# Entry
Amino acid sequence: MISETYQQIAIPLVSFTILVGVFLTIRFRLVQFLKFPLAIKVASGMLDQPPGPQTLTQFQALALSLSASAAVGAVIYMSMFGRGVLLWFFAFSWILAAIQYGATVSLHARSRASKLSRSIILLAVLALCVQGFSQGVSFAGIQTGLTGGRMPIWVVLVSALAGLIGLSGLRTAGTLASILAGFAALLLLLAWFWHGSEEGIFSRIWTGFTNPGDPAAIAAGLLFALTLSEIAKTPFLFSAVRTEPAKAGLTALLSAILAPIVAFLSAAIAHRIGGSTDTATDLYRTALFFLTALWVLSWVISLQIALPASGRIVTIVYVLLLPVSILFPATPAILTMGLWSGLLLIVLLPVLAVTGSGIAARELDDLSVSHQWEISKDIYLIFLTILPQNLLSRMFGWIASTPLPRAVREPVLMAYSRAFGVTVEEAAKEIKEYGSLNLFFIRNLKPGARPIEGNEKTIVSPVDGTVLRFGDITDGKLIQAKAIHYSLEDLLDAPEYLERFQGGRFLVIYLSPRDYHRIHFPVAGEVPGFTYLPGDLFTVNPIAVNRLHALFPKNERLTTYIHNPNGWLALIKVGATNVGRIYLEYDRFVTNRWIRTRKDQKYATPLQAKRGDELGRFEMGSTVVLLFEKDTMKFLPLVAEENKVKFGQAIGLWK
# Structure
């Protein structure tokens, strides 16, 4: 019945989708081709804001859009219509990408959408709910057939667990999705390299493409592939990313291109899964296990995002029924219901993309103008974003702390000093007395090397470094670089202190490897506590500052709050790549631990500090951000971009 239905409606629907896709491809100026590098740049997180408590990162949304159904369904539609249909799916995905971009922007900018667009969105949400449940009762049955019936009980358990985690919140679910997607992709690649490429899958698919057979069957197969790749839920996932609509749309565009790749990897090894017990088959079955959890998680999250708060009960019922439904074979009625809801979504998605194409085109033009692709710098930063920064920083810290034999201390440390321009004469000890590179990094200075200038009305630099930016905090925003801003709320993430610095002033000082790495109190005052916010460890060098959006709010931060009679001050120590740790002199807390959790420390009795007292230290260079309360201070002429400042120099005055 389903096959006959597909043959009756496949050609007009696929023709409609292709026509819309071609129109939008032209409307968006070949977005999937000319903007592909920009899409990769956006997906890497370089241009994204840090996630909020109920938002997803670009990568998390991309992981959730990784279609488990495409991996399982590839075997089905290839068996029905031949191997060549997979190559048609690859070609079709590039047209689909433009639709995906337009629909995602429309959903993300729904407050500006027309009444027609809002009506389409409402209808799409209803269809999404129906399709999610109908696929839920049939998906595990399909997988069990592919895996030889070996994992039905585990499929039930993992579905229930993934559903419950999905209800716990977007941040938790997004983090789990990133892990599951990584494991599934790795296992599929390993299984394919194990023996998938030995069966001539490329030549067989190409043969099917060059001899397509019945055009109606090919069209039906493509439509079947589109239904199984669940393209309709992806715009909803990316509408929960905390970023501009065009950025969310560009990453959603990538998901349309990834779906056939997942299908190909699955299809390349599926013919060996019968009764085989070899390693590649076990890898494939395990990948499907992870994909099942990801599939359930993505549907639960999609429904939570798509439905208003009052619709949460629908999601809860879905989570409760899914594990039970998996134990029973799907009925024709349920499959037919899922088929028609899926077909409705395939119609609604292009219509939504067309109705929002004006907004989508303008958003894309604005983004393209402000963010050019500079290959060497962008590839460098993308590479840094995918590295395990915390692990590498700990490893570097371990290497830097390794004792140096006395015979090589002076040559090694002198070579480092010459390479970075360190003023060795200021060190408190002879260079040969420093037993490791790290001890040299955190060296004390000779007495009197940094005199404290001015009086108690003077604000002094807390560190040696280079002024990157300074100015006013306007509308809750701080300037990071030209055309790049970040929010005070993201930087502090401390509501009890936030209002104190609204409309105030800020100063950013970068510490290079040559600089003195200890941090001192810029003013006298009381310390009521500190806040530690775990985060990434992106590099904070000038390339990153000028190209990574919201760099400081993304990174690990340790903030000391200081109350001076003239006003409040926040001194934010920003973690970075290869900064082994950040230490506090007034507390035993240390950053960059294996398990990192937020810490809000409040002292029963505020600590007292004098101007110039040691506050803490960096192990390797990083950045300090100073925040000042509104109308309490003014900067001195020494504070200018690219100017060098030293600890103890006067940088401002209390009013």
